[in-house]
Amino acid sequence: MIANRTCVISSTWEKGAGKPGTSQGPTRVLSLFESLGFSFEQTIEIRSNDESVDEFSSSATQSNAEFNPIRHGQALTEHCIRLSSEVEECTVNGMHSLILSGDHSNAIGSVSGLCRALGGEHLGVIWIDAHLDLHSPFTTPSGNIHGMSVNALLEDDNQESAIHTLKEEEISIWKAIKKIKNGKPANCILPEHLIFIGTRSYEEQEWKIIQKHNILVITKEEIEAHGIQWMLKTVNERLERCLYRYVSFDVDSLDSSISSATGTPEANGLDLPTAKALLQALWNHPRTVSMEITEFNPSLPQPEKLEAALLECFNGIDRQ
Questions:
Q1: % the chain with pLDDT above 70
Q2: C-alpha–C-alpha distance, residues 97 and 83, integer Å
Q3: Phi/psi of residue 317, each to 5°?
Q4: What percentage of the chain exceeds 90 in pLDDT?
Q5: Which DSSP helix (H) or strand (E) runs through 211?
């Protein structure tokens, strides 16, 4: 990614998650890039229009009768349509995109915009995250759509593992989310062109999709055993057929000792040297057309520790 041919898209949507505060993340992360001397061609802000959306609530506070398996789905759809249009326009105009988003459900809009812009070319997706985000409304334990982002893009509802029966309205909303790609087929993103890195927290239903499609998951333990160069070589070989790459970096992929300022921190995550080597290699790769940084929540404990880690990860990258 060449910085002066990159548009920055800040997207403040946060109600795909279970905790408030990630809407503050994009501005803080953009300030970090500016402090490192990055200069971007265009900066776009997409503010979420969610004043009418109800407050955050956890599944633990909901009864079975009121459980919503696709919380804020209609508002998310509207926001992601706007986001996808901006990503599509940047890409069509020959720019890369740096997407700074609130919660990870924004990726549905980002990737959909790329699929529309790339005209059917296969897109490689590198999902750096503590979680698989492979639930559907049929399997979700929470109803939070940031845990369904990858499923929406792959379009595998995993109904054989269903724990919920959806109402017609809920099915209609889920279909609308999957159609944000503007009718582009699911094979814009093939399972063999999807790679998870740093994943360590998931439910049985999600792992069944991994096994069903033989999706590659690279764990921290494998990186420690084989080295960073092995990891990068494995990624490049797996995505050899993909002319374009989308990199999504959820800050909870980092160890919880670094990333306490995120909604779902997990222990035993990536250390800082590994994350830095990975992100810089992916940023500089000629096929990377878009990178997302997501789920930074400055309202949670020790945001300064995570900011320092992000500064370290992107310090030294070509700014021009």
A1: 91
A2: 12
A3: -75, 145
A4: 86
A5: helix 204-213
